[in-house]
Design goal:
The protein is mainly beta. It has one helix spanning 141-162, and strands at residues 6-8, 28-30, 34-38, 48-52, 59-76, 79-87, 90-99, 107-122, 127-136.
């Protein structure tokens, strides 16, 4: 992952352990069942982190703006986890990985695509998530130029109707 625009390590702020986390962090909204945990350590996860314990459906991370890459440290009891990137509710990319509590390579995410949500689905149990980082999509210069030309064209039509 390149240098992210946003890094959320869950260490900052006045939230206490057990707090349900939804919109307390800038740029992102967490779906139901995310709680802030303190203590406990595993490779790449320590201090304060998010946990989703026993949810009945996929856990979701909703981004306030479109992003081009996002990643996070992640652990579960040994299981298979499916990570899915969505854009406006449609699947852009998805993959499954074996996840556990002790792997030192427990960083997962997406890059090179545009999306606004990540869904995390595990076979059973809960999971922990830490150090969420993401980069927001920047409109392409070509898209901005086409938009600008469209505005000029609309202005010219309006002016022509007034004359």
């Amino acid at each position: 992952m390149t240098t992210p625009d946003v890094l959320i390590d869950f260490e900052a702020g006045a939230l206490t352990g057990g707090t349900v986390v939804t919109t307390q962090f800038s740029g992102v909204t967490f779906g139901t069942n995310y709680n802030l945990f303190t203590g406990g350590a595993a490779p790449n996860i320590s201090g304060r982190f998010l946990g989703d314990v026993g949810s009945t459906g996929p856990g979701s991370i909703f981004f306030d703006n479109d992003v081009t890459e996002a990643g996070f440290f992640f652990r579960t009891n040994p299981t298979t986890t499916t990570f899915t990137a969505l854009f406006n509710g449609g699947i852009v990319e998805s993959f499954a990985a074996s996840t556990d509590l002790s792997s030192s390579s427990n960083f997962y995410g997406f890059s090179g695509i545009v999306f606004d949500e990540i869904q995390i689905t595990i076979v059973s149990g809960g999971y922990n998530l830490d150090s969420l980082q993401f980069s927001q999509a920047i409109p392409e210069p070509g898209s901005l130029a086409v938009f600008g030309l469209g505005l000029i064209g609309l202005g010219a039509l309006r002016r022509r109707k007034l004359i």
